[in-house]
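Weekly sync, protein design subgroup
Attendees: M.S., D.O., the rotation student, P.L. (late)

Item 1: inverse folding check
M.S. brought a backbone from last month's batch and wanted to see whether the design step gives back something sensible before we order anything. D.O. pointed out we never logged the input encoding, so this time it goes straight into the notes. Structure tokens as presented (246 positions):
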């Protein structure tokens, strides 16, 4: 009989941000596939008897191509196993969760999806930056700074908009060109920006600056991935509302 695949969001790092459902399913897993974004403390929660498979991440050297991950998930389930595919953050937000499920559908393998705290929500909360606020932002947009074809061509004119917060995932490498494009399309050069590195983990670092200077700040402080960019007036609240690590 076929097993089942659970596609589970593990949150951005702090193990206490796992949902109860994620925690329960993890404890019942026969096989767990995870990648670089899943926090170490969460990996330590994987039951000892479960098979642990590190499947890396796109940019890493020890990576399993996405197609192979998709196939592996199906293969393990067909052996009758309870398979947990752990993803950093939420599986349906820049997590390729959809691609993995399409393969399972084709093979007729049952699955469930467990949402997780996405990096935007986790980083914003732990940095003290409300993504919306009645005085500053009525909408928030989640974007990727790294497109499938390797470019960072975003719909710039739509992004330069008052009362809107931008959250850019995978934007660290392209931060200079992203900032330049936003200014070019009319964003005020003084627009506040935050960079949250390893958000919600014990090593979290938060830097704030303006869209003009943020790439210098990133370089001077040697900010490393994973890092999230938050752009908008709401960033001005960070100093007042920060609490984590205090
Ligand atoms: N599915 C994930 C996102 C995967 S894309 C989610 O919902 O959060 C990977 C990008 O997410 C990273 O390049 C970074 O921009 C962001 N990210 C993930 N975890 C993060 C963390 N703990 N701190 C800061 N950014 C993070």
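Designed sequence read out in the meeting:
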């Amino acid at each position: 009989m076929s097993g089942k695949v659970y596609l589970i969001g593990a949150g951005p790092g702090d193990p206490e941000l796992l949902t109860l459902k994620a925690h329960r399913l993890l404890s019942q897993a026969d096989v767990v596939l995870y990648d670089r974004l899943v926090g170490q403390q969460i990996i330590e929660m994987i039951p000892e008897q479960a098979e642990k498979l590190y499947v890396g991440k796109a940019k890493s050297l020890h990576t399993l191509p996405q197609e192979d991950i998709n196939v592996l998930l199906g293969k393990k389930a067909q052996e009758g196993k309870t398979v947990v595919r752990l993803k950093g953050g939420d599986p349906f937000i820049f997590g390729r969760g959809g691609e993995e499920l399409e393969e399972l559908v084709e093979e007729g393998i049952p699955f469930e999806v467990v949402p997780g705290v996405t990096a935007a929500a986790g980083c914003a909360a732990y940095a003290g930056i409300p993504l919306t606020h009645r005085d500053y932002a009525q909408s928030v947009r989640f974007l990727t700074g790294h497109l499938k074809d390797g470019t960072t061509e975003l719909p710039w004119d739509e992004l330069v908009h008052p009362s809107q917060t931008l959250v850019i995932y995978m934007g660290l490498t392209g931060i200079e060109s992203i900032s330049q494009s936003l200014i070019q399309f009319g964003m005020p050069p003084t627009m506040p920006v935050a960079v949250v590195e390893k958000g919600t983990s014990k090593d979290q670092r938060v830097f704030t600056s303006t869209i003009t200077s943020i790439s210098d700040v990133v370089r001077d402080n040697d900010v490393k991935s994973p890092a999230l960019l938050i752009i908008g007036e709401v960033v001005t609240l960070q100093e007042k509302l920060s609490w984590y690590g205090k």
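Discussion: Residues 2 and 61 are 32 Å apart (CA to CA). The mean pLDDT is 93.
Action: P.L. to compare against the previous round before Friday.
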